[in-house]
Amino acid sequence: MNSNKTQKILFLTQEFNxxxxxxxxxxxxxxxxxxxxxxxxxxxxxxxxxxAELPESVIVYKLKPIIYDxxxxxxxxxxxxxxxxxxxxxxxxxFKTSYNIVISTSIFPSWQACIAHANIKxxxxxxxxxxxxxxxxxxxxxxxxxxxxxxxLCSETIVSVSKSLFDSLVNxxxxxxxxxLIVLPPLIDNAFDEYLVKESFKQTKAPRRLSVLTVARLVxxxxxxxxxxxxxxxxxxxIFFDWYVVGEGKEKNKIKHEITxxxxxxxxxxxxxxxxxxxxxxxADIFALFSDSEGCPTVILEALHMKCxxxxxxxxxxxxxxxxxxxxxxxxxxxxxMKHGLKRLLTDKELRKSFxxxxxxxxxxxxxxxxxxxxxxxxxxxxSMQISxxxxxxxxxxxxxxxxxxKAIASALMQNFESLEVVVIDDCSTDSTRxxxxxWLKDPRFHYVRNDxxxxxxxxxxxxxxxxxxxxWVLMLDGDDYLIAPNFIEKCFILMKQYEQSEIVFLQAGHxxxxxxxxxxxxxxxxxxxxxxxxxxxGDYLKFVFKxxxxxxxxxxxxxxxxxxxxxxxxxxxxxxxxxxMRLALEGDVVLINDTVGCWVQxxxxxxxxxxxxxxxxxxxxxxxxxxxxxxxxxxxxxxxDSLLTRYEAHTLAYLYWNAIHRESHTDIxxxxxxxxxxSIHPSLFFTxxxxxxxxxxxxxxxxxxxxxx
Length: 710
Hints:
Elements: E1 8-13, H1 20-32, E2 37-42, H2 48-51, E3 59-63, E4 67-68, E5 74-75, E6 80-81, E7 98-106, H3 111-119, E8 121-129, H4 142-153, E9 157-160, H5 163-170, E10 180-183, H6 190-199, E11 211-215, H7 224-236, E12 242-246, H8 252-262, E13 268-272, H9 277-283, E14 286-289, H10 298-305, E15 310-312, E16 329-330, H11 335-347, H12 349-360, H13 364-384, E17 392-398, H14 405-413, E18 420-426, H15 433-438, E19 446-450, H16 457-468, E20 473-476, E21 482-483, H17 488-498, E22 504-515, E23 523-525, E24 533-537, H18 538-548, E25 556-559, H19 560-565, H20 576-585, E26 589-602, H21 616-620, H22 622-633, H23 638-664, H24 671-681, H25 689-709
Parallel strand pairs: 1-2, 1-7, 2-3, 7-8, 8-9, 9-10, 11-12, 11-14, 12-13, 14-15, 15-16, 17-18, 17-20, 18-19, 22-26
Antiparallel strand pairs: 3-6, 4-5, 20-25, 21-26, 22-23, 22-25, 24-26
Helix pairs in contact: 3-4, 6-9, 7-8, 7-11, 22-23, 23-25
């Protein structure tokens, strides 16, 4: 690995105490410190003694508690404070520092740690899965789930300490699906190699009684009380050996009391925390770990590296290094099976010898180091390719749109902006979409991605934005639409330069509604502004939309990072785009452009054109939620926004409901159904002109249908 001290890495951890995740972070830091500048951010509890394990050049930061109110806001501006351990610690706002890589080694299920991970500025973000905390994801509160999803979605790579751990967690947490996975077992400290070199010059040890070693925290999940019971029963069967337990924990006094009660003080020994673990493992005849749960136990890998025969329960990761009956024993978690397996190892010298011989031919540490180097090489390669990563991604989600996909691709590649990629994300079409896209692959800016299974319109939007796009800015172009302004993106960047002091989250231009197979004339939809362009705050933009009813998904160039942080395309509804970008607007400023940049093709197959009558309510109720958010975030007057909102809701409801009635020939729909729909949105709509007219039309249709029947 080449030295690159200009590159900065931030390690982020939920806690920093004597646990596996903290030791993993320390070992990773020691591997990287020679080549990178390394900082450490601790969000939760910490043990000052652990900081002494860090290299001197590491700067440590401590996160203050983050304010979380019942309305769902996260916030605290001065959230970094100096901690008291050492003079090397400085108070510097890591949230204003731009890192090359952020590595979070244990952030679940802490929503504070997840939010911190999402908000740190970094080119690459990695999350380590070290335990099974995410297995309870479905039972977490909504706020915690949202924070977890956000942290995963803004991370390009998930590193799991074992493949089996990832496979089990991906079933519990959907956000992990389709993420890039690298398996990196816990690193083995160089102290183990140093001990082996030193030990090789020593003479053979004198004969002694067999010994079993366990290195674990003294907590219920490590089952030390069961180890004591097994030890006692084997002694009673005439199998004499010593069992040493290295570690501390809350069960220590309980275990000591039971040792005394059984009179096993001389053979079952709690030796407390020890630093010379390599020596303990070298002197042990058997290493035993009977945990209920592990991500991938570091101590097992260390014991294997020290050529010590291992017996363990089938926790995550062990089967990736132990072939049972070949180089160790994996037994079930049932106590009698644990006892039987240990008895075999204690009484069968040849079995122990066989395991040791097999381990002598397997370099566990080398296998782990190879995986570590692959991880680092991946990001070093990306750093070297950084200049080729496009600024803008035009994403074309499509499904069964062979008649129009060519035109969409051509219009995207027509943009005269240099740093550009165009990606078609095919939602498992069965028509000729794939073949039509192949001919465009000769253009290096073009890429084609096909989903393994159909994930739906909004699901495809999400995958395109979160997992496929590489650009900092994104334009979403449906496969049946097309662009007509070759300079649109270039113009957007000129305007961003003009407004560089503003926090622009998206730029939005107009479009033409083009009706296919219809006698309707094309309609131009433009923002009603008296200028070529206009900068608006998020609150003003929301009022503008409610007042003028202007909106276009086709004409938006938006900031990818901000969109992901704001969980865009979270609702699987027809109006998912409006929900996404009206909420996103409240995170910064918006630039409206008084120009037509594309054609929104109405072919009768559009999601908005085929909205079922029972889906109307969920596509209108979102606007009141957004308005309430605007009152909180943008300090808008509730009275002013309510007036605009009610008229907007009434117009949208009347339009969608009337279209659905005509399309589905719902002349049998009752007034009661409409009343229920209106009431689910807001009772104030009953008193608007649009809704009163809709009710009159519905009564007329009903009367007409009854007359025809008679």
